[in-house]
Amino acid sequence: MAPTDKTSDKPRRRTGNPARIHGTIAHDLGVAIVSGQYAPGEILPNEINFSERLKVSRSAYREAVRILSAKGLVESRPKTGTRVTQPQRWNLLDPDVLAWYFATEPDPDLIDGLFELRMIIEPAAAALAAERREPHHLTIMRQALMNMERHTLNTEEGQSADRAFHDAVLEASGNMPLRSLASTIGAGVRWTTVYKARKDELPRDPMPDHWRVFDAIAAGGPEAARSAMAELVGAALRDTARALRRSQKADAGDNAR
After folding, report:
1. Rounded average pLDDT per 10-residue block, the chain, 257 residues
2. What pTM value is reported for the model?
3. Is 48 exposed, middle or buried (0-12, 13-18, 19+ CB in 10 A)?
4. CATH H superfamily, domain 105-256
5. Do 110 and 202 touch, CB atoms closer than 8 A?
6. Which of 83, 103, 182, 233 is deepest in the core (most CB within 10 A)?
């Protein structure tokens, strides 16, 4: 919850490691911004008032603002203060920004866009991986899938293994620009999985889709790998869409009470 008058009359005092303090402040403000508690063009609390209310140093607040600024969420100007920027300027490929979106109820348009990005990138990466993978890539992928099966995607260990598998596919593509997207793709995989499992068990077993991708890459079949990855991403989108509809239906029921 964001430490502002809009979200808490008695914000929690931040204590502990300075790096963790400004990171926590950046997280809280980031969530408040992407969830619409602060509208584009709105001025954030000035550092003196904010720091006094939370009993943190002004330098911790300034460092948090620098983090937000680097991600495109705010801009600071002399005499006018720190203003929330337009969403078009936000770095949506930043893993932290994605995490802030999924801390509350994510925008359906963001989810659609995230899966469109994955559908563009991951099938192409899988096709390249089928042509260029080395034995150690296959070892990493196989181990990741075995860990996914062992721990399931309802656990942090299983979710980490899922990200490791997708990272390994990008790594095996041998394409440096594609590999640089690993943190973004990994964040997308993680947060959509967490979102799907937030209120219910995961709706289906995702392992057969993952093994089909692995088998196609191991067999050196680029078109089979491309098709299998496209099916995997498409199935994940359908699962996420169902979770979103369930959440919206539940919210509508709560509001009707």
Report:
1. 42 53 91 95 87 83 94 91 95 93 86 92 97 98 97 91 96 94 90 74 82 98 98 91 71 57
2. 0.81
3. exposed
4. GntR ligand-binding domain-like (1.20.120.530)
5. no
6. 233
